[in-house]
Amino acid sequence: MPHGQEVRSPGDFIREEMKQRGWTQTDLARILERPFPTVNRILNGKHAILPEMAAALGSAFGNDPEIWMQREAKYRLSLLKDKTNASVAKRARLYDLAPIKEMAKRGWLSASDDLSRLESELLQFFGLATLDDEPQAGASLRSSIDGPINPNQRAWCFRAKQLAQSIHAERFTKRSFERGVKELRKLAAWPEEVRKVPVVLAEMGVRFMVIEPLPSSRIDGAALWIEDKPVIALSVRFDRIDSFWHTLGHELSHIRHRDGWSVDVDIVGEKRPTAIEKSKIEQRADEEAAALLIDQDVLEDFITRVGPMYSRSRINQLANLLRVHPGIIVGQLQFRSEIRYSAMRNTLAKIRDFVTSTALTDGWGHTTGN
User: Fold this and answer.
1) For residue 223, what are the domain limits?
2) β-strands 262-265, 142-143: how paired?
3) 187 belongs to a structural domain
4) Range from 254-258, 264-268, 311-315 carrying the lowest mean pLDDT
5) Beta strand 142-143 pairing with 360-362
6) What's this model's pTM, rounded to 2 decimal places?
7) Per the domain annotation, does 1 fall within a domain?
8) Residue 189 gets which letter from DSSP?
9) Which of 38, 72, 94 is the last residue of a domain?
10) Each residue's pLDDT tens digit, 278-318
11) Looking at residue 231, what DSSP letter applies?
């Protein structure tokens, strides 16, 4: 239908059929066995044609009842189009752009149904001028599983970008980075030592925060660059010492090689992709994360000598030798599929409370300003 052309009502078509047959409204009411006022309201578009009436009209005029239902639907939609389409389309765009409900729960947006206010807050959150724009750096966000970034993952990363503005860090240089990596290695023997991680990273020139993951995001961490300043955000969705250190090492690899914006999904845990399924960048990041705290030649020698009869005492001996927590060794053995994920879980110390006590944290009851 050309723009601006008026949609005819079903009543117009009924009048044409009546005119061809020389029927009056009274005649039609009697034929249909319907009250005269009902027929009159249908002819004037004040009463919708329901399926029973469509069937009766089809029988009276010798055509398909579906024709009358289609004419009725088209007419009613034409009455509503200009009133609702614009607001529905805008709200759909907002919900396509971000997980509105979850962001409101976390306090990232106000819990408001006002469409204008919601649009304004979301534009500010993503740094956009209009809804037609795409979030800055959104195109360069790269998932470790090479899939599209979903709205939950994108919102989480932009929350990290937002919070990074309030974190102080020293100037980032290659020298400060490598010096800091050596300091981080000294913190791996005890769970409580992760309290010092944010300070060491800040001295390296890396802004660090912990953000509780949004549902269905499956994010473990992200490495971002904001005005040539590196940022690492961790979700700590697995409250385990081995997962924490592996994810941190993975993100540090991205920073070392300036890999750009990277959101890392399922890099730890049983659902992680195999090495073959990962890109060369992600394989490199995993390798450097493993080597961050444990000499891989020493671990290979341990596996050759001890495997598959791994015991708690033998793992403790290696941990003492390497000056790392036993849970980190267990985690790497699990990562290599040397032992099951259900084995030696009592070695996998919890660290979330320790790291969130000193790091800028959003989630788990910790609140930050917007």
Assistant:
1) 140-362
2) parallel
3) yes
4) 264-268
5) unpaired
6) 0.78
7) no
8) S
9) 94
10) 889 999 999 999 999 999 999 999 999 998 999 999 999 99
11) E
